[in-house]
Design a protein that fits this description.
The complex is a heterodimer. Chain A is α/β, with parallel strands linked by helices. Helices cover 37% and strands 10% of the residues of chain A. Chain A has twelve helices and five strands. Chain A has a five-stranded parallel beta sheet with strand order 2-1-3-4-5. Chain B is an alpha+beta fold. Chain B has two domains: 242 residues, no CATH class; 125 residues, no CATH class. In chain B, strand 2 and strand 3 form a beta hairpin. The radius of gyration of chain B is 22 Å and the shape is globular. The interface between A and B is large, with 44 and 45 residues. Chain A: It holds the Pfam family Oxidored_q6. Chain A: Its cofactor is [3Fe-4S] cluster. Chain A: Keywords: 3Fe-4S, Cell membrane, Iron, Iron-sulfur, Membrane, Metal-binding, Oxidoreductase.
């Protein structure tokens, strides 16, 4: 892709930006194999370092932003991205809640750096990993670690049609029930974060007999303390309870508060 | 005034539901009892029905297509309590030795997700294509009495009134129902309290009582179609002792309900306790995860979603189960009406046990206990009702 395909002449310009992240979410766009040509036709893919040969400078109609803010440089760069973007949509847990790298928020980042790097003095990093919305106005947040490619296409389609994306914020449980899944927690005693987790993955793990890991972050009105009491009766100790909320969405408010409640 | 209007609507509805298939069966038809063996359960094969019955999947009993007798859960029992469900091994070969599982017939008559129409732009024209109604007829094997009552309730919801749901009607019409009288009571069952079981008294073509585990069934006839089926099977007249045995089994089931609910005045009890402190108590436990509403065989709410593709040429509208526990459910201009979980739980429970009477002329609860068992934290509406009763705002005054 060069950004010069057979798209409609006035196609909106798309940019895909990367901040502190693993690239998995933006690669979800390339993973949309069946829809990729339609995307390239409907949008002018103007800036996408993972996929294009040459970036096009200027302004963008739709910016997809992956990753969290972890460096002083990125804290400035996101301001520039915002200025160049008509609509800014964050994609994934890093951009939306700070990602797994927000574990630093619960510790001393200098200590981490001294363990990981031979020359920690070369590292210019912030004490925290924070979501994009802490820095600039965000028009829409797409959840997930990684995002669901069907939901990404839905968000792009909704943007093109000028409508609201259908990405419900209820629990994963509702998706399980729509699929006819047997509840892994009630029927098998498997600890599951589904009741407090935002839908969007299609109840992937419970569909394969696993408990939900909370990759999509907290649902609209999460009641984590009540779920924790249940998880505790299923055999999880305080340490396990702290860790179960402290993964890809550790910084998301409801999960952060609940993990802190189980701090030893 | 609102209540009066709704009641008159219910009366109109009752008159409109004139299709005898949806009516209470004539109890007079169940005169002579017969006995069939287990092989008779296969009689509906090859008669053009999609045969749906209980089968074991993922360590639970679900309703799915069954091909032969071997697909039924032979020798399987279950253990049920608040937030707890386990299959157990029975010490006999019973084919129906368990109670209701996580699913109900709702998933077939009122599917979780249903496309309503598709539209396509062709030049200047917009072509809209309505989703065709289902043609293949269902036969339900093993529907329990509480479930027959739940189906009757959904019949009133979807077929009563001026606007019958065409998809529900197409799926519901001519369903052949083989009911099974419950030989055991589940840990969360309370059909006796709701007067909906354990014996099937309406809404079936044929009803069975498993009198010898896995092999011998006492048959009652509910409709002409049921009689025709029985006539096509090897059967013999039931002896007096076999009929007594069936009655004894049902009496034993009725005496062993896992739960109970004082249903007589619960409608009024809840209506006068909308500010009871217990609603705060249950809200602290409630996850608002929607499981209770999803597993409830009478909950019928849906959300309608539109989808468009990247090209803007194709679009479709679908509906899916929704729940009064989500924020979107009560979203109107400016926000959600029921922001607090307290208001959502209260809405659900008072609708089920109280305002359902105003709207549809009956309780919305059939005492199946699914909402108790499949609540991840085991919230028990019979317990919630009891707690409210114990400190009823007007206790002593009424």
């Amino acid at each position: 892709m060069s950004g010069q395909g057979h798209r409609t002449p006035s196609a909106p310009r798309l940019a895909v930006w990367k901040f502190a992240s693993c690239d998995g979410c933006q690669l979800s766009l390339l993973d949309c194999e069946d829809e990729l040509l339609a995307v390239a036709q409907a949008l002018d893919i103007a800036y996408f370092p993972e996929a294009t040969r040459a970036p096009i400078r200027g302004n963008y109609d739709l910016s997809l932003v992956e990753g969290s803010i972890t460096t002083p440089h990125d804290a400035e760069r996101i301001q520039d991205v915002r200025r160049r973007s008509r609509a800014l949509v964050t994609i994934g847990a890093c951009a939306t809640s700070g990602g797994v790298q927000a574990l630093r928020n619960f510790a001393n980042v200098c200590e981490y750096a001294s363990i990981v790097y031979a020359r920690p003095d070369y590292i210019h990093t912030l004490a925290t990993s924070t979501p994009i919305s802490d820095h600039v106005k965000v028009d829409f947040e797409l959840r997930g670690c990684p995002i669901d490619k069907g939901q990404l296409i839905e968000v792009i389609s909704a943007f093109l049609a000028g409508r609201k994306p259908a990405t419900p914020s209820h629990s994963v449980c509702l998706q399980c029930k729509l699929k006819g899944n047997v509840c892994v927690m009630v029927a098998h005693g498997t600890p599951c974060l589904g009741p407090v987790t935002h839908a969007g993955c299609g109840a992937l793990c419970p569909s394969y007999d696993r408990g939900c890991y909370g990759c999509f972050g907290p649902m609209e009105t999460p009641n984590a303390p009540s779920l924790s009491a249940r998880l505790s009766s299923l055999g999880m100790d305080e340490r396990a309870l702290q860790r179960v909320y402290r993964t890809f969405n550790a910084q998301a408010e409801a999960f952060r508060e609940e993990s802190e409640r189980h701090d030893e | 005034m609102r209540t009066e209007t709704q009641r008159s609507v219910v009366r109109d509805n009752d008159e409109r539901i004139s299709n005898p298939r949806f009516e209470t069966m004539d109890k007079g038809m169940a005169e002579a009892r017969s006995i069939v063996d287990a092989a008779g359960l296969e009689a509906l094969r090859g008669q053009g029905y999609a045969l749906i019955g209980p089968t074991v999947r993922d360590e639970a009993i679900v309703y799915d297509e069954i091909a032969t007798l071997d697909d039924l859960p032979r020798g399987v029992g279950d253990e049920q309590d608040g937030g707890h469900y386990r299959l157990t091994r029975r010490n006999d070969e019973a084919l129906f030795g368990y109670v209701v599982g996580p699913q109900s017939w709702k998933k077939l008559l009122h599917p979780p997700v249903l496309r309503l129409w598709r539209a396509r732009r062709e030049g200047d024209e917009l072509r809209v294509e309505a989703e065709p109604a289902r043609v293949e007829k269902f036969a339900f094997i093993g529907a329990r009495s509480c479930e027959l009552h739940a189906i009757a309730i959904q019949d009133r919801v979807f077929l009563g009134g001026a606007y019958a749901d065409p998809h529900y009607r197409a799926r519901r019409e001519d369903v052949f129902i083989v009911a099974v009288n419950c030989g055991v009571a589940g840990g969360a069952c309370f059909c006796v309290s709701m007067d909906t079981g354990p014996k099937a008294t309406m809404g079936f073509d044929i009803a069975l009582t498993e009198i010898v585990a896995g092999s011998s069934f006492l048959v009652e006839i509910g409709t002409d179609a049921g009689r025709a089926l029985l006539d096509s099977l090897p059967h013999r007249a039931a002896s007096a002792s076999e009929t007594e045995e069936a009655e004894a089994i049902l009496a034993h089931t009725a005496e062993n309900m896992g739960r109970s609910l004082e249903a007589g005045d619960v409608r009024e009890l809840l209506a006068r306790n909308l500010d009871h402190p217990r609603w705060d108590d249950v809200a602290a436990r409630c996850l608002a995860c929607t499981n209770c509403t999803m597993v409830c065989p009478t909950c019928f709410c849906t959300s309608v979603e539109d989808a468009s593709d990247l090209t803007g040429l194709e679009s479709e509208r679908s509906r899916r189960w929704d729940s009064c526990f989500t924020l979107d459910f009560s979203y109107i201009h400016g926000g959600s009406v029921r922001q607090s979980v307290k208001s959502r739980y209260r809405q659900w429970m008072t609708h089920k046990l109280s305002t359902w009477y105003d709207q549809f002329g009956s309780s919305g609860c059939v005492g199946c206990g699914r909402c108790i068992v499949w609540c991840p934290v085991g919230i028990d509406l019979t317990e919630e009702a009891r707690a409210i009763r114990e400190s009823d705002a007007q206790k002593g005054a009424t």
